[in-house]
Amino acid sequence: MAVVAKRRWRTFLILRRMLMCAIGVIGLIALISVHVEEVTKLPADSSYKLPTEIGYQKLSREGNWLQEFAPPHSLKSPFTAHKLDGASGRLDSDKLWKPPPNKDYVPCTEPSLSYRTLPESRGYLLVHANGGLNQMRAGICDMVAVARLINATLVIPELDKRSLWQDSSNFSDVFDEYHFINSLIDDVKIIKKLPKELASATRAVKHFRSWSGVDYYEQEIAKMWEEYQVIRAAKSDSRLANNNLPPDVQKLRCRACYEALRFAPEIEKMGKLLVDRMRSYGHYIALHLRFEKDMLAFSGCTHDLFPEEAEELKTIRDNTTWWKVKDIDPLEQRAKGYCPLTPKEVGMFLHALGFPSSTPIYIAAGDIYGGESRMSDLRARFPILMNKEKLASAEELAPFINHASQMAALDYIVSVESDIFIPTYSGNMARAVEGHRRFLGHRKTISPDRKALVRLFDKIEGGTMKEGKNLSNKVIDIHRRRQGSPRKRKGPVTGTKGTDRFRSEEAFYVNPLPDCLCQNESTRSSTSFVIK
């Protein structure tokens, strides 16, 4: 009996071991099948997958630029991406990159049936376009409309060579001169140079009044043709009103800005190459990081700077004769939202919005004040920080490197074409890019509420708030309606008068709605944005 019992016990042990092995094998097979299924479910355009090949990577002289930077999936960050929607508990990538509803707005810049044929020219308009690239762009487009109003032949504008940027570029170095002239052939006669016989003629040098309407130009300025054949506009910026102009004048401004005034072919080609290289990382943000020496000096903003840096900026401001405001309270400036976000604050802002650390970011800016050390906090959160110099070789940038306007034009192209544009300060470039993106279909532009953000960031710095769900919910809620969705251009601030009234208006080129954007008929009946 004992022998039989021993054999039965041994058989039982063998069967139990076989059963345990079978269970283990089944579990392993199930685990492998689930893993394979999850991999196959990854989207084809996942931001964690670097394209296998694009045309410019085949060129041997360009072969190293991409190898220098790790693809998004290999980068690690101590900051974990958190939820965006506050309910699902997961990052909604589609929602993150999704543009705002366009409400079926489309460009409508064609002149009306009453638009006159090009009248006979009464004289020649010379223009000195002042300021940086985007200030000059707006001014040139306004001067196209002014030339039409006063029946002038427009001579290709002279770009600013004496400003802070000290750029020697001519019009044809920055813009496509041939396209500019021919695109506006039915609107304004444009010539490259003043006729030789008028080279020594007496010229009326005139500072056109800021934010002027049609009556000023058609009456006061047009009368000058009785005495002069040549009128020279000493400045071009903000010489035309934002609002209350005839529809055909407004549409002409848009045709000039968004159709006629495109960049020189070499700049367009290089800009598109930079866009392609950014897209090799997937969806990308163009960040206009306006944390440059001139911006900080003239705004008086010193937050997060060392005392010696703040003193250097004050010295620059004091020694600049044309800058009238010398004594500026940096704390008051920041509290009112008049200061650009610092790189550190940008990192906190993007993280609070829910962007993962693998998000590619293009830095559209000049030299950041404080150099690489000031970028360390932002880079710790978002390692894929790119700019012109990282995306292109020194050889490729050589034709543009010593020309501020041409370098700014490259940033402009990459910013307009980005999936999301975020300006850290509402300067000339930020406004120009925002308006262009609105015209092209209301592409997503997140405008930080600097005044509200400063209050939150100060609480974090003071230890009364921590980064996390609470901060994220507040930041997302503040910016829910600041993403570039369609709306009419803002008028003047109530109670303002004179030039302050015009200055408080939203600039025409920031938002060309309603003048140059119209809704499809089927949409008009179901929305309050009706164009009349």
Describe this structure as you would to a colleague.
The chain is of the alpha/beta class and 532 residues long. 42% of the residues lie in helices and 8% in strands. It contains 22 helices and 12 strands. The chain has helices at 2-40, 93-97, 133-149, 171-174, 177-183, 214-221, 247-260, 265-279, 293-299, 307-319, 330-335, 343-353, 371-374, 376-381, 388-391, 394-397, 404-416, 428-439, 450-462, 469-478, 498-504, 521-524, and strands at residues 105-107, 123-129, 152-155, 158-159, 190-191, 203-206, 230-233, 285-288, 361-363, 385-386, 420-423, 517-519. Strand 2 (123-129), helix 3 (133-149) and strand 3 (152-155) form a beta-alpha-beta unit. Helix 12 (343-353) crosses helix 20 (469-478). The N and C termini lie far apart (105 Å). The model is unreliable at 1-6, 30-91 and 523-532 (pLDDT under 50).
Gyration radius from CA atoms, angstroms = 29 Å
Count of runs of 4 or more consecutive helical residues? 22
- Tell me, what's the shape? globular
Residue share in β-strands: 5-15%
How confident overall, as mean pLDDT? 85
Instruction: Report the structural category.
Output: alpha/beta
Largest sheet: 6 strands, parallel
* Amino-to-carboxy terminus distance: 105 Å
Low-pLDDT stretches are 1-6, 30-91, 523-532
Number of strands: 12
Determine the fraction of residues in helical runs and give it as a percent range: 40-55%
How would the blueprint of this fold be written?
Blueprint: H1 2-40, H2 93-97, E1 105-107, E2 123-129, H3 133-149, E3 152-155, E4 158-159, H4 171-174, H5 177-183, E5 190-191, E6 203-206, H6 214-221, E7 230-233, H7 247-260, H8 265-279, E8 285-288, H9 293-299, H10 307-319, H11 330-335, H12 343-353, E9 361-363, H13 371-374, H14 376-381, E10 385-386, H15 388-391, H16 394-397, H17 404-416, E11 420-423, H18 428-439, H19 450-462, H20 469-478, H21 498-504, E12 517-519, H22 521-524
Parallel strand pairs: 2-3, 2-4, 2-7, 3-5, 6-7, 8-9, 8-11, 9-10
Antiparallel strand pairs: 1-12
